[in-house]
Amino acid sequence: MKLPGVHRGGPTVKQEGDKKVDRFDRSSPPLLAMTSAGGRSPDDACLISRLWLGWCAAIAYRGWSKPLHEEDLPSAPSGVRSDPLHRVAVELWEAELARAEPGKAQVLSGVLYPLARRSFYQGGALLVVSGLCNSVARPLLLKSAVESISPDEPLWRGFAFAGGLGACLLLEQWSKTQGLHIAGDEAILRASSAAMQLVTLKAGRLRTGVGSDGAEQTLLGKDLVGAADMARFLPLMWLCLSSLVGGLTVVFVLSGLAGGLGVLVMAGTFFASEETAGATRELLDGAKVVKFMGWEETYLAHICRRRATELTHLRTYRIAINVVVQIGRASPIISILCTVLVLVLTSPDRFRADVVLPIISLFQINMLSLPERSGRRTVGGAGDVEAKPVDAVSDVSLSVRAGELVALVGPVSAGKTSLLAALWGEAFVRSGKHAVAQAAIVPQRPFTIAGTILDNILLGRPLEPDLLAQILEGCALLDDLAALPLREHTEVGERGVTLSGGQQQRIAMARALYGRPSVLLLDDPLSAVDARTACVLLDAIVRYVKRGWLAEPEAGPVARAALVSASQGGHLHAFDSLLLIEGGAVTAHGPREALLASGSELADRLLGAAAAASLDDLPEASRSPAEAAAALAKAAEGASAAGAKASATPPGGVSRLTTAERRQTGSFSSGIYTTYLRALGTASVWSYFALLVLTYSTFLLADLWLVRWWIGDAGPAAGLPTASRAGVYSGLCLGFIALIIGSSIFFTVISVRASAAMHRSTLRRVIYAPLGWYDSTPSGRVLSRFTSDLNTVDIKLSMDVDNLMHMFFQAATMVGLIASTTWVLAVVAAGVFAVFCFATLVADRSIREVRRIANNAVSPIMSNIAEIKVGTPLVRAMRLGSFFAARQSAAIGAWARFSYLSRAMQSWSAHVGGSLAFVFGVATFFFIIGNRASFGVAEGGLALTYAVVAPYFINIISEMFVQLRTSMAALERLLEYLELPQEPPHELPSDPPQADFPKAGEVVFQSLCMRYRPGLPLALADFSATIAPRQKAGVVGRTGTPPTGLIASTAPMDPVLHQGTVAHNLCPFGTKSDEELASALVRARLPADLLGTHVSKNGSNLSSGERQLLCFARAMLEETSILVLDEATSNLDENSDAAMQALLREEYAAKTVITIAHRLLTVADYDTLLVLGGGRLLEQGSPATLLTDPASVLSSMAAALGDEGRAALLDKARQAKGRPSRHTPAHEDEQSVRVPGVSPQADSVVHTRL
Prior knowledge:
It contains 38 helices and 18 strands.
């Protein structure tokens, strides 16, 4: 899948005579292009090939010769293709919603049933045929065949019944496998695929904060994927019902009352038969906070505690299910025992081999119809979910007309963001009306997808190169793109990890302008940029609204307006009118000058800031499209030339940020098996095998005792009364039942323990992985392993192992008994077994590879749903839902395609196994009938009975082996994370930290070089600086320079909050008292009673200012000598910012404070400023000294604030200079933190834990 306009080459605009060469590649593949080079669709196969799934043989042959890749596989059949299927599903869902009663949750059955109905009934009809062959034709034919063993019967009659029995077996196996493929593969995948798409659409309609954190990822990655696997056997109900009805009739015919009692016992047995994901999501979203705060071990223990709770329920569930399943597996023995006892007591004359053995075979076969796994999943209703509304704003009346530029102004928590959210449809509007023309939004927290810069601007819209070139210039992105190796084709990474906050904000602005909307709704768009860039962005907004910038040439006069939330008072002079908001209500409305003249205290406090540079002072930025494109090309060429001269880009070119997901090929590594066996425990594994041997030895002894009972006086039963014989047989049967249940419970306990150990080991590796790995690995890829794959390991893998071992030992017992009757059958059994093993291995090699591809296909689904949830307001407001829905539909279609092929290969393998079992069964039938003189009726009848039953077990073993191998693919993906790169240890044994380190808090950088990832230019080059103990140091630079990369921040630029209470977000692990938490809130200028307030997903029910203050309070809870703040107050109004800086001066007077800021006024009263540019330290000194130096970089940055703003900045700096300094000279510090330099060629990032 490739996004439009994405290619590996850079800009190519140039003029060749009068011909303009387009710098953007218009020949890029379409968004949802998908090619199947491996072969045609299964729909194109011939009739016989479709009936026997013979087209899978080509895949098996290809997979035997080489590892399979996506291009080697055929496309999906028309029944499971996503485009038509999802289109019909959405139409059915909309019709369902139209019929639904208001206030009632809707269910998906009305949508999924019509989609799966036809295939479900077609497959069901075949399964009914299989059930009738199983329960009617086969027992009657077996009864006649056993009777023909007698020398009194004609030989031709025995051969005829043997041939009929073989044909019955073949028809039964074929109809079962093909019916299960149609009803269990096609129908279930159609329903699962449609349900996934509907969940995606529903997630895009829910308001932010509704639903639990990680609910959608768990629903898609664990529940629906897991349900699709488990529901594959749902159509077996057709077989079970037909077998039950037919078998009931046959048993009553053969044995009367005794058989009826056995059936009742078996029928009764038949009918009897999100927090961990949320915590992992928190870890991935807040990886930087976890690492910078040193919370790795605490978070590991936190997640493992949740996991332990989950495993407690899992163990109980597994034991309950295994008891039911094993009772079901033992039910034939229970039924046979009841039948034998009643026959002996009521009808001794009917206790014969030709009566009992068909009943034994019937009960044994019907046991195979019972489900091997059981469970119930409940998925909540998909109807609209309403959260309890909270009035954030009330009684607001507002009208913004064409050509107007209106600002929302107010303190933190005033309701500015809530008002904008109501306009773009995110907030709940309880009363009143609002109408907004075509709108584009820029939220406080910029939204990015895991793609390139170009992808994030277009979001699926057609590429218009001239328009894009103008927007890039107007949003001040030209210099940033010129510094990037691939310019607009540079990957931003998940959550925009490769971009600064200012770059993300300007990309969001470019995205909004690209659609030429009628209304701009901008929530604090200037908070993360420097003063000069803010002026450029403000100029772009003014030109767009008032001067018709970006209007289409043939369009007439355009009507545009903008409503902007502003936290910086210096730019308010550019707006036509201001809305003053406090406490959720509009207190004043009018031009800035009028509001100031009104004498309002709030207006003086919020609007009294000095005006920034006038628009007239800015250079004219309006260029023609050709001039803008040429400027972009020139900037790109300059960047290329600079890159050629410098050594910033390492040899080997630019690597991709988001690496392709690793997929193993070939057979499973032996390490996978040894890791699993070690997790189970060597002693436990041997104990389990001993239990199995004892269990099926008891099973064999019970049947042999029954034969000796028929023989009468011969053997160990000679001379025993009937009651004693019945007692021994009953004891052996009951012992088998106890052992089969006990062995499964034992394996359940050790497998749950193994799951816990493997989860903890992989989670530890993830937590201690370097930040670069988090940046290059989509969270959906990680979550798919800790949801769908972990769920498979927890439940399906262990159940598959247990089921396979039981089936193997039972089949081995039967085949061994048959082979023991004569060496000829032993040779036949060995030959068939060899061919069976080879065929299974051939099929398994391809199934394994296809299953790996299918497992990897879950990751894009998880990543897409995560992006949709984060970007829901933007997607809904800008009507971009079709782009995200189409992208998710393509991802779900890929998963459905590979899952279908994997299941089809399993069904084809079952056809092969069934055919081989048929050969063995027929050979046994004819040999026993042909050599009936060598067998008694009892011994020959028992061998013939097992020859009928054994093929079923062999076929089931083949299917279970393939299922086990597909489950092993999930274990393989999970254990891949045991090989993740790890951070260096926090403490070196050779240099242990002292207890009071760092004592004074000096920070020294010596020749520091770093880059964000291999292939990118150096973010810091030969950087050296010293920050003295207890000094207040500010780090500033133009937007796009990497001051954020300077130090591992403890109060990060992007506030990271999780779903839960405020107390949970301040201290996720409960190590601080409520008094300490309340004190931190008060110190951060937040009310103490906020402690129990619920925080929605991503803190969406809080303003950006409140989120920043919460993160500030969280940082203050950590006792440290050094506090680092990364744009921690960028979303606060200037008065709140000043209050926080005063708090820092008071409470952190004896500590070192390092603040990264774009707002110069924030750090104007600091002891020293570090000015960065181009990855180097340009200058360092006190703010007053640098501002009074006309040649300084800081002085030129301050010029963008205007004369009044620069004067206010200088005045604040001089006042600070007059205050006594508490910092200690560097030479007085006995303990210093030193960041060693790395060579410019190194690709590592230096992190310092302070």
